[in-house]
């Protein structure tokens, strides 16, 4: 038996009585098409509850008695209300509530200081990150697509973070509070209101994926000089200046989008990036003609992969187009951007 689809409400399937057990430690009913609200769960020994990919509605109040929970996954349901029921679940280490309709602040999680992974992306959460300031063991924090606001200061002590996604919120201020998060491998701040420069990322040399697009960041790319593990770098729609020289040792880059900035100089620093599959430099000040021979080197960078190169100024675009005879390459228009 690999799976079962119950296709009914919890009450119709299991009855309306509270679910009671003094010894049950794990309950998994993922993808069973369960509908309606959660039942009252009197499961004081329950450590793991997985009910993802159902059609559950209502709030989290039935979980109030599950104080031993260490892992909770209710992702991809239709749950509403706030997080208050989790305030007593202080043993939580992994909490996944993504793709619901949850509201309110993160305050009920203030005492959940054992959290290592927290994903509540795609909800309607509000307020700031202050309740997470004590979560020093967090390694993964995903709060993408909510209505959170304020600065990053509460994350200053979360130095174990390896993945951080606060994209599509209303975060403000600079990157300084995450200066000490040097274990970061993935950092996503797309579509916020962040300001300042990239200097706080200077020691984040483990970064592989970085998306700071659609912010108000300024300064140059110099702080990324030692981030040679980068595979994907997206900083489009900012106010970045200077040249591409700091990226010359990022030889593993596969996707690079720095469009809609104020970058200057030529593309020669990218000639060693032989893994590039997507390069977008649209709407910058890259007007210098690259050397013809060197340009051929860049065009030949991807030996077997389809590559889209989107150039910036007219003169640079013309030079690129002259060398794009290989059918593996296309000189495309910029991708549509989400309006801000």
Automatic annotation (TrEMBL):
Q: Which SUPFAM superfamilies match?
A: L domain-like (SSF52058)
User: What is the protein's given name?
Assistant: Uncharacterized protein
Its placement in the membrane is given as:
Single-pass membrane protein
Give the source species. Phaeocystis antarctica
Query: Which GO cellular component terms are attached?
Result: endomembrane system; plasma membrane
Where does this one sit in the cell?
Answer: Cell membrane; Endomembrane system
Looking up InterPro entries in the UniProt record yields: Leu-rich_rpt (IPR001611), Leu-rich_rpt_4 (IPR025875), LRR_dom_sf (IPR032675)
* Swiss-Prot/TrEMBL keywords: Cell membrane, Glycoprotein, Leucine-rich repeat, Membrane, Receptor, Repeat, Signal, Transmembrane, Transmembrane helix
* Primary localization: membrane
């Amino acid at each position: 038996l690999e799976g079962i689809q119950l296709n009914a409400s919890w009450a119709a399937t299991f009855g309306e009585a509270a679910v009671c057990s003094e010894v049950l430690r794990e309950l998994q009913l993922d993808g069973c098409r369960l509908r309606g609200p959660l039942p009252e769960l009197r499961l004081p020994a329950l450590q793991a509850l997985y009910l993802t990919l159902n059609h559950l509605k209502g709030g989290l109040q039935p979980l109030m008695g599950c104080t031993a929970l260490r892992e909770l996954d209710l992702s991809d349901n239709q749950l509403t209300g706030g997080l208050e029921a989790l305030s007593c679940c202080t043993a939580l280490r992994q909490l996944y509530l993504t793709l619901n309709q949850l509201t309110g602040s993160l305050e009920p999680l203030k005492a959940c200081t054992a959290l290592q992974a927290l994903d509540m992306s795609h909800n309607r959460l509000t307020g700031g990150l202050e309740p997470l300031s004590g979560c020093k063991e967090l390694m993964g924090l995903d709060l993408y697509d909510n209505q959170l606001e304020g600065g990053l200061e509460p994350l200053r002590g979360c130095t174990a973070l390896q993945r951080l996604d606060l994209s599509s919120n209303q975060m403000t201020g600079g990157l300084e509070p995450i200066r000490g998060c040097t274990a970061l491998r993935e950092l996503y701040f797309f579509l916020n209101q962040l300001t300042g420069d990239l200097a706080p990322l200077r020691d984040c040399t483990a970064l592989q994926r970085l998306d700071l697009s659609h912010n108000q960041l300024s300064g140059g790319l110099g702080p990324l000089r030692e981030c040679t593990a980068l595979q994907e770098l997206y900083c489009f729609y900012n106010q970045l200046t200077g040249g591409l020289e700091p990226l010359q040792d990022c030889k593993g880059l596969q996707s690079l989008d720095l469009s809609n900035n104020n970058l200057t100089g030529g593309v020669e620093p990218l000639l060693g990036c032989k893994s590039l599959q997507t390069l977008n430099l649209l709407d910058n000040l890259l007007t210098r003609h690259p050397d013809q021979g060197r340009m051929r080197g860049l065009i030949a960078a991807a030996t077997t992969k389809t590559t889209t190169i989107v150039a910036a100024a007219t003169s640079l675009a013309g030079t690129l187009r002259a060398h794009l005879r290989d059918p593996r390459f296309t000189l495309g228009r910029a991708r549509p951007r989400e309006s801000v």
